[in-house]
Amino acid sequence: MYTRKEVAATLDHAVLKPFATDSDVTEGCTMCREREVAAICVRPTDVPLAAKILAGSKVAPAAVIGFPHGSNRAEVKALESKLAIEDGATELDMVMNVGKFLSGDYDLVQRDIEAVVAEAKPKNVCVKVILESCYLSPEQIAKACKIAEAAGADYVKTSTGFGDGPATPEAIDIMIKTVGQTMGVKASGGVRDYETAVGYLKQGCKRLGVASTVVLLDGAPE
User: Fold this and answer.
1) Structure pTM?
2) Is the pLDDT of residue 1 over 90?
3) I want to staple 76 with a disulfide (CB 3.0 to 4.6 A). Which of 44, 72, 96, 113 is the partner?
């Protein structure tokens, strides 16, 4: 059984709503320090503030890249990554180009991820690739995982939370079986309670994307 502290250490808290203010980011960062979560995912312009508040803590400031649709050009994602790292991000959660993937342009999708990895790897910055699994068939989820692996990313992640569906145990099962030996797997979207969180950890997830972190952790059995 996982302890509350062990679960907290796998959580990436998200402050990504379009209307989130500086005070929301500050509040989120402060909570993350107190709860000792793994990371806080923020929008690119919020990285300097998050990095400042989290300085000296174990909580990683994570920036979203190409968020939420993934259809920015690779050069734009690369620049966004470079600036986020300069601002203090130590992790990047980038959105795969879902439209190009569904169009069968796998070379473009891989080059897109590689452009972000090229900025991140020399700085020891972790790259997580968001597949938006709700739009993909089981075979496509596996294919996308292999592309992210070939591109040198560290993690594959199910969802932005802005798509048409959340993480599912079925999607996670495919991701774990496909790249679980070589990459981390992150369930994100719809992880709102302690039981769901533990279920994904038991499946083999290394990270969980969560917006309702306090509620989730306070739901842990004593």
Assistant:
1) 0.97
2) no
3) 72
